[in-house]
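Progress report, Aim 2. The chain analyzed during this reporting quarter is listed below.
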Amino acid sequence: MSSSVAKNHEQGSPSLSSRTLEVNVCEQCGGNGYMKSTPNCYHTCLNCLGRGLTPQTSK
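Predicted structure tokens for the chain:
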């Protein structure tokens, strides 16, 4: 472990596991990240920007 990483870890910085983001599968593309517009043409889903996941919204 490098010294800068060790110093940050010793100072109590949050670990990656504690910084998880609540996400949902995109409802528009079903998690694929793309949508089929014609039989041979696919387009990137604009709702999730091709990732297939959207941030969880609070209700």
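Helices lie at 3-10. The CA atoms of residues 10 and 29 lie 42 Å apart. These observations will guide the mutagenesis work planned for the next reporting period.
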